[in-house]
Amino acid sequence: KALRGLPLHFVARKQQQLTKQLEQIALDHPYTHSYTLNISGEIIPDRDTQLHLQVESSKYRVNAEARLDMGRDHDNTSGYLHVGKFISDKDEAFVEVELITNSMKWKFSPGWGRRIGSNTLVGLRYNVVDDIGYTWLEQRFGNNWRLRFDRSSEDDDDEVGLRYQFHDFLSTELIHRSNETFVRVIGHL
């Protein structure tokens, strides 16, 4: 509200100072301390000035996705949720929940992941519903590209995926399994 009515040129001239004040207001909130949040702000002065806050936690990780598989006839829409707690600077204990909306089938998978270097993740997870264990490897290339390999305890369930993230809300992934190859469109919520 404090920016309402300010001249555009004033906001542009004081952009860095106003951004620091915005970040400080967010940093002073009690949740910031409780969840160990890292905050970075951005002010984009225009006729309708935009305020952006990027909030990340060094303690928890929560990802929600809506998925649509193109080139696949069955189980091609799903919702996915990953909730994790960092137990060290390299280790994360997590739970993944997936609902395949075509068949209304649930998957529930607790797991563990470890960061090796700055761009490589490895881990284990166990799908409780289907009684299938997985080992996985994820390699990041820059900010937008990821290569993923899931090795399953079942014979025909291995999966390789190459993902490109367009922006914070949309990705696409080329996925290859032993009997199919398809493209997945992913909306990040």
Description:
With 189 residues, the protein is mainly beta. It is 13% helix and 59% strand. The protein contains 3 helices and 12 strands. It has helices spanning 8-13, 15-27, 30-34; strands at 37-44, 50-57, 60-70, 77-86, 91-100, 105-116, 120-127, 132-141, 145-152, 159-167, 170-177, 180-188. The model has no long low-confidence stretch (mean pLDDT 90).
Brief synopsis:
It contains three helices and twelve strands, in the order H-H-H-E-E-E-E-E-E-E-E-E-E-E-E.
List keywords for this structure.
single chain; 189 residues; mainly beta; ten-stranded antiparallel β-barrel; two-stranded antiparallel ribbon; elongated
Q: Main beta sheet, described? A: 10 strands, antiparallel, barrel
- Radius of gyration over C-alpha positions, nearest whole angstrom: 20 Å
**Major sheet: order of its strands?**
3-4-5-6-7-8-9-10-11-12
User: How much is the average pLDDT?
Assistant: 90
The best one-word shape is elongated
> How many DSSP H or I helices?
3
> How are helices and strands ordered from N to C?
HHHEEEEEEEEEEEE
Strand content: over 45%
User: Number of DSSP strands?
Assistant: 12
**Helical residues, percent:** 10-25%
Output the structural class: mainly beta
For the record, give the distance between the C-alpha atoms at the N and C termini, rounded to a whole number: 27 Å
Uncertain segments are none
Layout: helices, strands, pairs:
Elements: H1 8-13, H2 15-27, H3 30-34, E1 37-44, E2 50-57, E3 60-70, E4 77-86, E5 91-100, E6 105-116, E7 120-127, E8 132-141, E9 145-152, E10 159-167, E11 170-177, E12 180-188
Antiparallel strand pairs: 1-2, 3-4, 3-12, 4-5, 5-6, 6-7, 7-8, 8-9, 9-10, 10-11, 11-12
